[in-house]
Amino acid sequence: MIYFDKVSKIYNGTGKTVALEDVSFAIEPGEFVSIVGQSGAGKTTLLKMLLAEEAPTSGSVFFESTNINELRDAEKPLLRRRIGTVFQDFKLLPNKTAYENIAFAMEVAGRAEEEIAADVPHVLELVDLGNKMWNFPHQLSGGERQRVAIARAIVNQPDLIIADEPTGNLDPVNTYEIVQIFRKINDMGTTVFLTTHNKGIIDSIKKRVITLEHGRVSRDDKAGQYVL
Ligand code: ADP
C-alpha cells in the first residue's frame, strides 16, 4: 500500500539538514505501524511525504501504484481524501462543536446531508463520545478532543490513518484510551501509521515498529520493541 524507495530528504535552510537518508520500507494494507525516533529523527517529514506536502530530494514514495512525487497539484486532494490525519495538537475548529467539526469534514468531501446526519453520531459513538456531541472543544478534555479528531479522521472512510505524535499532549490514562481506539480502527480494517516517542505505547501495541535514527531506518521489528 505504501512504499518508500530509497528516499532521502535534504532541507535547504540556513544550512543543509539531512532529514531522511536512503529510507526504504513497504507497508501492506491493514498493518499497524509505528515510527519511533527521537525529536529530529525525520518522522514528521516522512508523514508529510505521504500527504504530498514535502517531496523527496531523491527516491520515490508510492501510495498503491501512485508515485506521489509525480502528482499534479490538482490531483493531490484526491490522495489526501484517502488518508485520515490526526495531530498532536488536535487541530479542531474552536468555534464548532464536536458534531460540527466532523460534519464539516464531510461537507468538504462533498457528502450528502443525510449521510452526515447518520454518520457523525455513529463515529462519535465509536470513540465513546456520543454524549458530548454538542460540546465545543474548550468544553472537552485533551483526551476527548483527540477522540473527536480521530472520529473526524475516520468519518470519510479513508484507507489509511496517519497520526503524528497523537498522544504527545496526553496523560498516561488518555494515552492508553487513544491507543485502544487506534487498535479498534485497525481491527476494522484501516491501515494505521503513527509516530511516537512514547516507549509505553510501543510496548503495549505489540505491532510493527520502524525506528529512525538521524534520518535512517535503524530497526524494523515485527512485534513492537522500542530500543534506542
Ligand atoms: P521528527 O518529526 O522526527 O522530530 P522532522 O521530520 O520534523 O523530525 O525533522 C527532521 C529534521 O529536519 C530536523 O533536523 C528538522 O530540524 C529538519 N526540518 C524539518 N522541517 C524542516 C524545514 N521545513 N526546513 C528546514 N529543516 C527542517
UniProtKB/TrEMBL annotation:
<dbReference type="Pfam" id="PF00005">
    <property type="entry name" value="ABC_tran"/>
</dbReference>
<comment type="function">
    <text>Part of the ABC transporter FtsEX involved in cellular division.</text>
</comment>
<protein>
    <recommendedName>
        <fullName>Cell division ATP-binding protein FtsE</fullName>
    </recommendedName>
</protein>
<dbReference type="InterPro" id="IPR003593">
    <property type="entry name" value="AAA+_ATPase"/>
</dbReference>
<keyword id="KW-0472">Membrane</keyword>
<comment type="similarity">
    <text>Belongs to the ABC transporter superfamily.</text>
</comment>
<dbReference type="GO" id="GO:0005886">
    <property type="term" value="C:plasma membrane"/>
</dbReference>
<feature type="domain" description="ABC transporter">
    <location>
        <begin position="2"/>
        <end position="228"/>
    </location>
</feature>
<dbReference type="GO" id="GO:0051301">
    <property type="term" value="P:cell division"/>
</dbReference>
<dbReference type="GO" id="GO:0016887">
    <property type="term" value="F:ATP hydrolysis activity"/>
</dbReference>
<dbReference type="InterPro" id="IPR003439">
    <property type="entry name" value="ABC_transporter-like_ATP-bd"/>
</dbReference>
<keyword id="KW-0067">ATP-binding</keyword>
<dbReference type="InterPro" id="IPR005286">
    <property type="entry name" value="Cell_div_FtsE"/>
</dbReference>
<keyword id="KW-0547">Nucleotide-binding</keyword>
<dbReference type="InterPro" id="IPR015854">
    <property type="entry name" value="ABC_transpr_LolD-like"/>
</dbReference>
<keyword id="KW-0132">Cell division</keyword>
<keyword id="KW-1003">Cell membrane</keyword>
<dbReference type="InterPro" id="IPR017871">
    <property type="entry name" value="ABC_transporter-like_CS"/>
</dbReference>
<dbReference type="InterPro" id="IPR027417">
    <property type="entry name" value="P-loop_NTPase"/>
</dbReference>
<dbReference type="GO" id="GO:0005524">
    <property type="term" value="F:ATP binding"/>
</dbReference>
<keyword id="KW-0131">Cell cycle</keyword>
<dbReference type="GO" id="GO:0022857">
    <property type="term" value="F:transmembrane transporter activity"/>
</dbReference>
<comment type="subunit">
    <text>Homodimer. Forms a membrane-associated complex with FtsX.</text>
</comment>
